[in-house]
Input
Amino acid sequence: MKHTFAYALALLLLAGPAAAHSVWIEPNKDGKLMIENGDAGEPSDPYDPTRITKAHAFDKDGRAIAAEVERFEKSAAVKPAANAALVAAVFDNKYWAKGSDNKWSNGPKGTVANPTIAGPSFKMPKTYLAPMSAFAKPVGFDLEIVPQADPATLKAGDKLTLLVLLKGQPLAEASLVSDIFVGHDVKADKVKTDKDGKVTVTVPKRAFAGVEVSHFAKDAGNEVEGTFYNASMTFRVKP
Output
């Protein structure tokens, strides 16, 4: 079967900045909403906390409420108001370029001569903390996974339909990782969105679940330059 450009690009990104590390939000043992970076299910890799450029929080009705970035030496957390039902953040992953030798470089533009693919990278995680009447209201990220059922109601084995949006519009044929916590040494199921940007996954048997999607948006008229996007969505599975 002939692969579409989107499918081929998704395979390319698996080795690149958009999927080399997952970024997700998860409460730690002290209740801090840590922004984790690395292979899901393993200890977070250290990172410059200034890479977290924005924090967002919303109440159960989808109203924006106070949130700030709490920065530590080599990590960061989202610190929302007490009534937060959903929190989110933006991780600026800086500029990436792939050279003709198939090696990736994370440095200023121009570091790699004649790259085959290049551009800034942004990762946008969000997590659901409590029941929401406005669970299907997008945060407004450039790339976003929007649940079509309240994550707070879901148990292991339930079916969950997700909508993937790119700049507010449904993204067809996006390759979504259905369980980011299986670890990168295990092949996670990847499922494709339909023409309406929707895909259905099965809630895994674990206490905390997550999905993610990556996409490279090419600049108009440019076959090399564009923007790498990655979005994740996590939630606690109902016992």
User: Anything to note?
Assistant: The mean pLDDT is 89. Helices lie at 5-13, 17-20. The first helix runs from residue 5 to 13.
